[in-house]
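Milestone M4 deliverable, item 7.
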Amino acid sequence: MQYDVVVIGGGAAGLSAATVLARARRAVVVVDAGEPRNAPARHTHGFLSRDGVEPAQLLADGRAEMIGYGGQLLADRVTGIERCEGGFVVHAQDSMLSTRAILVATGLRDILPPIAGLRAQWGIDVLHCPYCHGYEVRDTSIAVVGGDNRPFTLHQAALVRQWSADVIFFPNGIELTEQERRALAARSIRIDSEAIAQISVRAGRVRGIELENGRLVPRQTVFVGPTFVPCDELLKDLGCTLGDNSWVTVDPTGHTTVAGVWAAGNVVDSPAQLIGAAAAGSRAAIAINHYLLAQDIEQALAHG
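Output delivered:
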């Protein structure tokens, strides 16, 4: 199957890009493995006019819009990409696609601290983004649990204080400097340095932080700073350049250092929320269309 563009990943970035390209009358297909990062969340927020919509519904509506303009959707998992004359061959588990350009929008994985009970409540009352969920848990008793992503965790602890006056920070192995302790105290954030045994849950909801000494600290909400791991194996295999942070580098349109390959959304931008990822997909799509246009003109001149 020959396409102008293969979009790998059917989240906000991928669907936004595919819709723009389909409206530009490009032959575009979205290949999606059906594993959205925000699947555990009950609602999405911060997306203008779609506040509170369920993540699955947002994606379903996006797919319908894209298909309505002539784009295609393929439920499959891409296993590799190889360069060829005129573009690329995309290998998936059940198909093989030929394309002139590629957009990778495969997102990232959230690696949580290995604390019992944490993963099971992920997206319910164990959260990481206060801009996404802070308002919904406002004025609850909040625990912020430290993780390997130290800068993110400390920033998060100070930040969530805007949504609640009752915040306790559990360093969970992080050694705080005196300046960091003073900064947290200035925000009226308490610190509990005892080792955590597990997240205590009752009737499907968090009831507190159980410490190794047996003490239970009642809490209703837990914020944690995951380690963000981009799903960028396809980009690395293509030889895309990595930055000092070991993430794939892109220009403002999402173009990688490999001609004809773009990336958008969380795969190259860990802080990107849904609306930001959708915007990045739109920018990338316009750049991809201009890239294809230049090829079209060159080919027309060669055959003129």
